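Form 7-S
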Amino acid sequence: MKKIVALLLLCFVSTFAKSQTGLQFNQVRLVEVVLPAASGSVASVGTVPAGKIWKMENILSGIYQLNYAHLQINGNNYQVPNNYSGTTSTSMNNSCIWLPAGTVVNFRRASGVSNPENVMFSILEFTVLP
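Output:
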């Protein structure tokens, strides 16, 4: 009897319950930006489109002499720790960053660094479901 009541309760709840807004995977974006040689220069990574959310998974950079990558998010500067190994390019950002629609992301060169540089961003894009 208890099993029948539990089964009926489960059927009732699953029929009438509404879920929260969800995310649907859309695409993987590999965004490469090239920073000019000028110290303090800024390159655009992009703006999160309407109805989307970005999950920035990783940042790959050749500035292995620095301890931090410099991100600008909506005009505010942030430093992302660098996993510098001592001899090669570096992978940064041990944890992901979730960015809502409309967020503007730039990569900023640190002061005192003057070599041109390519930086690759690994971004997962999700569509927000109603």
